[in-house]
Each structure stands twice: as C-alpha cells, then as structure tokens.
From TrEMBL:
BP terms from Gene Ontology: acetoin catabolic process; epigenetic regulation of gene expression
Residue ranges constituting the Histone deacetylase domain according to the UniProt record: 22-312
Record's compositionally biased regions (Basic and acidic residues): 347-358
GO MF, one example: histone deacetylase activity
Name of the protein this chain belongs to: Acetoin utilization protein AcuC
Pathway: Ketone degradation; acetoin degradation
Family of this protein: Belongs to the histone deacetylase family.
PANTHER family given in the database record: HISTONE DEACETYLASE HDAC1, HISTONE DEACETYLASE HDAC1-RELATED
Organism: Sphaerisporangium siamense
Keywords (A to Z) from UniProt: Acetoin catabolism
Length: 387
C-alpha cells in the first residue's frame, strides 16, 4: 500500500526536555525509536535526519517578537511568562529555542519529503506540538510544528490540506492558526472541553466555510464510541474536501492508562485509527501523508507501542498485535525508567463499533456529540447531517 516511507529522526530531538518530573518526558520518544528498531520496523523505512527550522520558517505561523523572546529565554534560561515560558506547563530552560526549532525542522523535513514526492508518507514522532500559539507557548508546546509544516506546503502551492488530530486534547493551536483559511480543514477529536485542557474545541467553533471541525467526546468514551464518532465525521469530510495532503497528529493520550485525561481507548483501538487514517490518505489525498506524534504521558506502557504501530502501519507492514516486545527492549526500558514494560504489542482488545447509519440514539452522549458536530459542519460541505 505504501510506496516509500521516511521517518525523520535525530538523537538531539530528546533535548526537548522540560526537566525532571514534567509529564512530557523525552524518554517516551527514545523508547519508541528503540522499540521500532528492535522489532525491525525501521528496516522497512528510510530514516533521515533534520536541521532546525529557521526563523523565517517559524515565522510562517509564529510572530517574530515571540521567536525573539524564545531565543532570549534559550540564551539565559530566564523565564518569560508573558510569552508562556516559565510556567508549570512550559518551564523555561537554556536551549529551548534550539530544541524546539529542531522539532519543527523534523516536521518540515517530513513535509518536504511528502510534498516533493521523495516519500509517499513521512513521520516525525517527536512532533505534534499542537497547542503552541502564534505568540505564546502553551500546553507543553513552544513552536507549533504541524502548523509550520502545513504553512510551508501552502507556500509551495498546496491548494487544500486536511489536518486530523486524534490527541485527547483539542488541537487548538493549529485550529487558531488556520481558522480563517478555507484551504486548511482542521478536524480534532478530543475529550470535551468541559472536562479537559485547553477548554476549547466545541462544535460551534467552525472556522472559515466550516473548515474547523470539532468532535468533543464525553469523558469515559472508549474504543467503540470513539471509532463510531471518527467514522461518522472524518471520512465523509475528507472525501468531500479532497486534500492535496493529509496531515495527522497522533497523540496517544486517549488511552485508558493516560494520567492526564479521561478517555478509555485501548492500544488496539488506537491502532485501528492509524489504519483508517492510512487508508484515507490513499483514498482522498493521493497517498500523501505526513504524520506526527503528540501527547501521551504513559511513557512505557503506551507511547512506545502506539507509535511503533503507527510507523509500521505507515510502512505498509502492520505489526501482529500478539507480537511480543523484545527482551532487549524491555531491559532497556527498565534501565531508563525503572518500570516493568509491557510483554506484547496489544492490550488484548478487538475493537468493534456500530456505524451511525445503523441508527442514532439521542439518549446517548456520544451520539449527541457526533450529531452536534455534523449539524454544525456538514451543511457547509454540502453533506446531509442526518445519518
């Protein structure tokens, strides 16, 4: 299914580090790449390096005074709370500009590979920092690498780009940066803003010509409800929009074990979502697919397995769920974290769901969330909101 796949990686990407005790610990991507390597997944892709995004590239979506402020913090380590650096979510640290610009540069390298045809699919699992705003850091995110990649492709001549965000938190920064741009369709499936940061992402946030799409799911939603919502919203919109490129953000903090949120997906449900997005990239975007990581704070049990599955799916050779994790990787994970790692690549679930076309239940909170989105968005795209 996949002709050529690039994974962008540089060991310096783990320098994006807010310090001990911070939830966004870089060991999660270190363990991901180690697991993908041990399972032979990286043998099926091309691993390429990257360079930091330049100030001009960052300025495609970020204010220049903000970039200058991040550089000042980077040089001194002193906080700048006005620009969101020096808060509990985004502690200031020396070298923050260089570390953040490298993450953005990795996503830019992936965008270039996809746009130029060097690769059909490209991934940056260290990216997906979707909360950063034009002039401030937010939610563990300093520079918004997905938005930088999207803006760069628009400059190269892309007419339409679709962005699908499956992180448990609303993709507010990417939405904000393209809210008035009908060339970019942003779709975010997330826990309701009534119960989770950042408090945005209501269905009423519809953007230019209905191109901001928000599916706000109730706390406790699991595989069946999440997949039902995904299928009721994402495929019909992508088919109608017909993007030149599909960009996806794969925060895996929707998992039941994640300590910062309240959805109840399994690794197997997340893996199914990756397969669906892969298929939609081929169906709606000519196979052009740029994928990033994102949130995910269960550092050993969830993130490495989830994103190894993502890379394997993009490579066109999915991992059999019952596959055991390599003993050498388990030893490395324990050495790095002191935790006992998972023994296999599955949570033992077989996620099934009922498509909305089989009936809508107005008494069900998930169905109400689905219909709120469809009614707010579908008419703008010439689609019937009724199932």
């Amino acid at each position: 299914m996949s002709r050529s796949v690039q994974v962008v990686w540089d060991d310096r990407l783990i320098s994006y580090d807010f310090g001990p005790g911070h939830p966004l610990a870089p060991v999660r991507v270190e363990l991901t790449m180690a697991l993908a390597r041990e399972l032979g997944v990286l043998d099926k892709v091309t691993v390429t390096g990257c360079v930091p995004a330049t100030d001009d590239e960052l300025a495609l979506v970020h204010a220049r005074d903000y970039i200058a402020a991040v550089r000042r913090v980077s040089a001194s380590g002193a906080p700048d709370v006005f620009h969101g650096l020096g808060t509990p979510d985004n502690p200031a640290f020396a070298g923050v500009h260089e570390a953040s610009a490298l993450v953005a540069g990795a996503t830019l390298a992936a965008a270039r590979a996809v746009w130029t045809g060097e690769a059909e699919h490209a991934l940056n699992v260290a990216g997906g920092l979707h909360h950063a705003m034009p002039g401030t850091a937010s939610g563990f995110c300093v520079y918004n690498d997905p938005a930088v990649g999207i803006a760069w492709m628009l400059e190269q001549g892309a007419r339409r780009i679709a962005y699908v965000d499956v992180d448990v938190h609303h993709g507010d920064g990417v939405q904000a940066m393209f809210y008035d741009d009908p060339r970019v369709l942003t779709i975010s499936l997330h826990e309701s803003p009534r119960t989770l940061f950042p408090g945005t992402g209501f269905p009423s946030e519809t953007g230019a010509e209905g191109t901001a799409v928000n599916v706000a799911l109730p706390a406790g939603c699991g595989d069946a409800g999440w997949l039902r919502a995904f299928h009721a919203v994402v495929p019909p919109l992508l088919r109608e929009f017909a993007p030149d490129v599909l960009v996806t953000q794969h925060g895996c903090d929707s998992h039941a074990l994640d300590p910062l949120a309240h959805l109840m997906l399994s690794l197997d449900g997340q893996r199914r979502a990756y397969a669906e997005l892969h298929a939609l990239a081929h169906e709606t975007a000519g196979g052009r697919w740029l994928a990033t990581g994102g949130g995910g704070y269960e550092l050993v049990q969830v993130v490495p397995r989830a994103w190894t599955h993502l890379i394997a799916e993009a490579a066109g050779d999915p991992i059999e769920p019952a596959t055991e994790t390599p003993p050498s990787w388990r030893a490395f994970a324990t050495e790095r974290t002191g935790e006992l790692p998972p023994l296999s690549m599955t949570d033992g679930r077989d996620p099934e769901f009922h498509d909305l076309s089989r009936g809508y239940d107005p008494g069900d909170s998930i169905d109400r969330a689905i219909m709120a989105t469809r009614k707010a968005i579908f008419p703008s795209h010439g689609l019937d909101p009724e199932p």
